[in-house]
């Protein structure tokens, strides 16, 4: 009996357990923990980031008794089902419809480089419409959903759809401003009416068509330390303009390989428009619907594609809700520099080779803004605007500085004498300002800030200095032959040797500037390089003609004598009388100036230090508001410490100008203490 009972107990237990499981309906719940990566993937992963529908949309499919795999393969059937199935709240329904529609649009648009069919346009427009409905006509406002991951996801669906639509419309020719195909402001595609609104963005003068429309989200840059952008509504794009390169003159086919030394280049003449606006501006694009409620939006096929300048507008109002406008402030600048070819061109210019530049040009980093003051940057010897890559990017990325300043960069040939470059740059800046502000009354024409590196720092200092008779004496001593007298009334020489400070400038920053020259320009390597520098023949001829006239040598005993024209390297020698004379010229008392100086080693007396090219004694200026000494080589402007100091000075300038406006008095700059 006991034995029989002992065999029955396990069997009875097994039978009881089986009955219990059957009666429970096999409802078994298991719990597991998620790591941080799985947590983010579950909360944020979606059709854009992982190629799979988000967890939120998968939950919606389960509520609607739909299969995820089936919906991934045939999204339209699921869209139709979710649209009508009861028991799903409005926000959840709209967000899921937007993602399913996006999945279908992506699947049927494998190659964005080709022209779209009408069916593809319809898919992407529907995606944008579903996302727009969620963002602005759902159960709650965008502000009420501000902390929700789902709103961020759907905003990205909208932005991505607008990005792809803008690119497709460009390929279709819809974004041309003068297409010759009728009114380019309205397109009729797949039963949709698309209005193109360019009224909020100003294209560079003379632009009639775009060459490319590039999504900023697809760009990656080497050389830019930071990418500055603003999260918000809209597609961040770079609009590459179809503008001929202005800094290389077109030569006849027979002269295509001619050196710049054989091309016209004088200090007396400049192009009438020595400036170029950014050929690849950053823009933000929105797609808007005029419907007042979901019922109207469901059948809406009339949309407006609006292009915005993100520098001028920070937010937009949609359905009584103010939302930030998305922006990218670095992509257009990066595209311009990457395609400029400046590095090789600047060296070709220095040595007088083909495809160099022969006159200064001012590049504007954004379309001219009459309300923002100008930061004008001047690069150094054998350099180009690439020297300012991270300085300019960080200024444009700083929201406060971006609100108050626009960046202009001077690109000039660095082989010619310093005073020739000075006269040309001064005139180029004046012509550019007069073009955009003939009366000189706009805020952009007041309170300019100069930033110059190396030889550009010397030029920046001279732009705010006064020369009356000082340079005449130095010039006569060095360049006028013995026995000749210099005519100080000669107009062309007077343009070089007599000048006053630029009235628009109120602050200047000199970086590693050899104000008193540098011994580096006299060493063996520099002398060898100087011998390779070639000056334009037209400049040599003009200088000789000026000297013959100014010394009254026409028909005299010195007729036919050759006059030596120094190049820029020669003029940077410590022993050059002109560089020594310019160092003594007075800086305008109305200009606040600052020095940023580099030293290669942190140890040793500061007075005996140098940056490998410029000694401290040459870069130091008495009377500076501030002097920042940084342990670095000569290219100190590229260092984070120098950029931080430039930003500090510009923020200080904004505060000083604000105080001046409040008090009605100009804030005088007082010399400060050196900061090391």
What does this structure look like?
By secondary structure, the chain is an alpha/beta fold. It has two domains: 39-172, no CATH class; 253-278 and 341-675, Rossmann fold, CATH 3.40.50.1820. The chain is built from 23 helices and 19 strands. The chain has a nine-stranded mixed sheet with strand order 6-12-14-13-15-16-17-18-19, with helices on both faces. Strands 1-2-8-7-5-3 form a six-stranded mixed sheet, sandwiched between helices. Strands 4-11 form a two-stranded antiparallel sheet. Helix 22 links the parallel strand 17 (592-599) and strand 18 (626-631). Helix 3 crosses helix 6 and helix 6 (90-107) runs antiparallel to helix 7. The longest helix has 24 residues, at 149-172. The radius of gyration is 33 Å and the shape is elongated. The N and C termini lie far apart (100 Å). The model is unreliable at 179-183 and 245-265 (pLDDT under 50).
Query: How is the biggest beta sheet arranged?
Result: 9 strands, mixed
Strand content of the residues, in percent? 5-15%
Instruction: Please state the overall shape, judged from the principal axes of the Cα atoms.
Output: elongated
Count all strands and give the number.
19
Give me the number of helical elements: 23
User: In CATH terms, what is the architecture of the largest domain?
Assistant: 3-Layer(aba) Sandwich
CATH class of the largest domain: Alpha Beta
Question: Roughly what percent helix?
Answer: 25-40%
Global mean pLDDT: 85
How does the helix and strand content classify structurally? alpha/beta
Tally of domains: 2
Strand order of the largest sheet: 6-12-14-13-15-16-17-18-19
CATH fold-level name of the largest domain: Rossmann fold
Task: Using the CA coordinates, give the radius of gyration.
Answer: 33 Å
For the termini, the CA-CA separation is 100 Å
The CATH homologous superfamily name of the largest domain equals Alpha/Beta hydrolase fold, catalytic domain
Unreliable sequence segments = 179-183, 245-265
